[in-house]
Design brief:
The protein is mainly β. Helix content is 13%, strand content 51%. It has one domain: Clam (outer membrane lipoprotein receptor (LolB), chain A). It is globular.
């Protein structure tokens, strides 16, 4: 993971972080402009890199009753959109699992290893590229100034929602952001590939905010639930809590 973190952070280290001005919100859909104002980014430096520490509970398949505890760290770069997400969890009977999602240069990749060495999943390809980019797009709510990036275009749908389209290095991803009347982001929805198989279908992938907090003077969601709307119904598979956030980091935390 160390080399991958360096790879995505290095191009951002000497990048300027200009202060965000309200005039930069001109032309955005009202719902998006309202969210950026409510988040508190006006007058703050633009965010180029991010470190997140997360705790969560996960389910591996529909119908599973038990939640597995997970601990994760994630690094983002913004001007050259990329992330590395590293998660650790234990699955009975005492099987340590290490997972890694990576997005860089418009390409996505997912790996899962048992006991830290036995590779059980190693997924790549066009479906993974799109799905991983959709994840990056959804997660800009943790660093809202990224909404102003040139690779994202916005279309207002109604006073409380907007569709975002992200284009970068040949990959395109789309998702819809929903907001409340106070300007807070409350939900994200995208038609996303659930698997990476030749016959995989897109299903609605939903992120729902449960709690907000002000961190580094920016209001962001810190408790979220992630679900799939499958043929069998709504399946919530992840409950996530952000425990630490650092902006404009230059190396590993």
């Amino acid at each position: 993971m160390n080399s991958e973190i360096t790879e995505i952070l290095k191009p951002e280290i000497n990048t300027a972080s200009p202060v965000i001005r309200e005039r930069q919100l001109e032309g955005l859909p009202p719902a998006v402009a309202g969210w950026l104002k409510a988040s508190g980014i006006i007058g703050k430096e633009r965010i180029n890199t991010v470190y997140l520490r997360q705790q969560g509970q996960m389910k591996m398949k529909p119908g599973q009753k038990r939640w597995y505890k997970a601990d994760a760290e994630q690094y983002f770069s913004v001007n050259h959109p990329a992330f590395v997400w590293h998660v650790k969890m234990n699955i009975p009977p005492f099987i340590p699992i290490i997972g890694r999602d990576r997005f860089a240069d418009g390409k996505g990749e997912m790996q899962i290893k048992a006991f830290g060495v036995l590779k059980v999943v190693n997924e790549k390809g066009e479906k993974m590229d799109e799905s991983t980019m959709q994840r990056f797009l959804a997660e800009i709510v943790w660093f809202p100034s990224a909404a102003l990036s040139p690779y994202i275009t916005w279309e207002g749908l109604d006073p409380l929602s907007a569709r975002a389209v992200m284009n970068y290095k040949g990959t395109t991803a789309t998702g819809t952001f929903y907001f409340n009347r106070q300007g807070d982001f409350v939900r994200f929805s995208a038609m996303r590939y659930k698997d990476n198989k030749p016959d995989s279908r897109r299903y609605e992938w939903i992120i729902t905010v449960k709690e907000y907090s002000v961190i580094n003077d920016i209001k962001i969601p810190v408790k979220l639930e992630v679900s799939w709307l499958l043929d069998s119904g709504l399946w919530t598979w992840l409950k996530l809590e952000v425990r630490e956030v650092r902006y404009n980091v230059t190396g590993e935390a």
